[in-house]
Amino acid sequence: MQKRILYVEDEPFLAKVVQESLQNQGFEVELVMDGAEVMSHLASFSPDICVLDIMLPNIDGYALCEHIKRQFPLLPIIFLTAKTETADLVRGFEAGATDYVRKPFSIEELVVRINNQLTIVNASKRLGVSGQERILGCYRYFPMRYELESPTKTIKLSQREQDVLSILTATVNQAVDRKHILNTVWGDDSFFNSRNLDVYIRKLREYFSEDSAIEIVTLKGKGYLFLVK
Fold first, then answer.
1. Got the DSSP string for 63-109?
2. Do 72 and 160 fall within a single domain?
3. Same structural domain for residues 105 and 158?
4. 147-192 pLDDT tens trace
5. d(Cα 69, Cα 76) in Å, to the nearest integer?
6. Among 92, 110, 126, where does a domain finish?
7. Distance of alpha carbon 229 from its chain centroid, rounded?
8. Potential cystine with 137: which of 103, 131, 141, 211 (Cβ 3.0-4.6 Å)?
9. Which of 17-31, 125-139, 189-203, 211-225 has the highest mean pLDDT?
């Protein structure tokens, strides 16, 4: 079955080239050139992934991404943009993007990144990650809403936090291989991605700090254990 891509780009020549190239790679691609029309296309087209420009007429890609994620929290979104500053990249991920491709780019790179995001979604399904509420000690975890409720506050999870936490909590009190997390969430186990994982593990530990019965244990040379005592 063809995977469906909703492609949002307002530059006509580039849009046509990318659309045809992705179609030649076996994808079904629906092109939208006005940000204000995206939500209606999402409802009717039901894409597997969204490839989204940032600089769009009527609504910018950041705001659009946030709006999409509120209604379709599990839909992967790749930003495809000429904005190259680190601050732009950070803002994109904070808005809910799951990957970020800088222009100019090759179709080969874009296809690899699309397939990687689709693999992550499928891996989450295989791990049994569902939209049902989960009780973790004194916390309530809502995967579909990207939310973690503690006794004192509600924490809105970023896409990467959600990806890592969903893997850890799919096997509570069982070891999870570090390389498996890296390959599932980032697509490879490079040094740079490994350091990123360290950052997200620290953040998740902070989120669960209100319950001493919960611990994310580092297993040296192996991976992690999400421990609920």
1. HHHHHHHHH-TT--EEEEES--SHHHHHHHHHHT-SEEEESS--HHH
2. no
3. no
4. 999 999 999 998 889 889 988 988 788 788 898 899 888 888 888 8
5. 9
6. 126
7. 30
8. 211
9. 17-31
- 69 with 28, same domain: the answer is yes
Q: Supply 64's token pair.
A: 């659009």
Count of domains observed in the chain: 2
- Phi/psi at 224 (nearest 5 deg)? -140, 160
User: Domain range for residue 165?
Assistant: 134-228
* 105, 126, 147 - which closes a domain: 126
Q: Choose among 150, 142, 169: nearest CA to 209.
A: 150
- Contact (CB, 8 A) for 228 and 173: yes
Segment 36-41 long-range contacts (CB within 8 Å, at least 24 positions apart): 38/6, 38/8, 38/64, 38/68, 39/67, 39/68, 39/71, 41/6
- Residue 67 CB coordination number (10 Å): 17
pLDDT digits (tens, 9 = 90+) for 186-200: 888 888 889 999 999
CATH number at residue 181: 1.10.10.10
Confidence band of 80 (pLDDT split at 50, 70, 90): confident
